[in-house]
Design a protein that fits this description.
Elements (H helix, E strand, L loop, with lengths): L1 H40 L1 E2 L3 E5 L3 E8 L7 E6 L2 E8 L6 E6 L7 E7 L8 E9 L4 E8 L3 E9 L2 H5 L7
Parallel strand pairs: 1-10, 2-10
Antiparallel strand pairs: 3-6, 3-8, 4-5, 4-7, 7-10, 8-9
């Protein structure tokens, strides 16, 4: 009877894990469909380039000026990293992203989920790296345009000796 119970228990856990995995896949598919919609049905503005030596940066996004209940989603390298968060003046949406030196462009797309009380959806993005480099970017999105920030990782050694790679 013990072996039977063990098998039933294993089957139950396996079913629960399978259902959880299927649920995760369904959620991921819905997210991917939203990402595709954001990137194909809206116009991306001209990218703002941010250069860094760091392998990651901390991003903080604040409402610029007046809290008017606008919200954003953020897509980084085609992955949803912020999902429908309301912008606030005193408390930022804060997250960290990896800046991959193997990628030519590490692309962050900021999407307006709504326009708040006072359109367009405006925000301030503060980017800080581990070396203390600090950059502030003004963002303005609406339901037809996205802001795009491209993070480009530069090699510290290559820049410190410009003749290094010459024959």
């Amino acid at each position: 009877a013990k072996a039977q119970l063990s098998t039933e228990e294993e089957d139950r856990i396996t079913r629960e894990e399978l259902l959880a995995a299927l649920d995760s896949l369904a959620k991921l598919r819905r997210e991917q469909e939203r990402i595709v919609e954001y990137l194909t049905k809206r116009i991306n503005k001209k990218p703002i380039e941010v250069f860094t030596y760091a392998d990651s940066v901390t991003v903080e996004i604040f409402d610029s000026g007046i809290h008017d209940k606008d919200s954003v989603s953020v897509i980084y390298n085609r992955t949803l990293v912020v999902d429908k968060h309301e912008l606030k003046v005193d408390k930022p949406i804060k997250f960290k992203v990896r800046v991959d030196k193997e990628r030519r462009n590490n692309e962050m797309v900021i999407v307006a989920e709504n326009l708040g009380t006072y359109p367009p959806n405006t925000a301030v993005m503060i980017i800080t790296d581990k070396f203390g480099k600090h950059e502030e970017i003004m963002l303005s999105t609406d339901l037809t345009t996205n802001e795009v920030v491209i993070f480009i990782r530069i090699d510290k050694q290559a820049n410190s000796n410009p003749t290094k790679n010459q024959p």
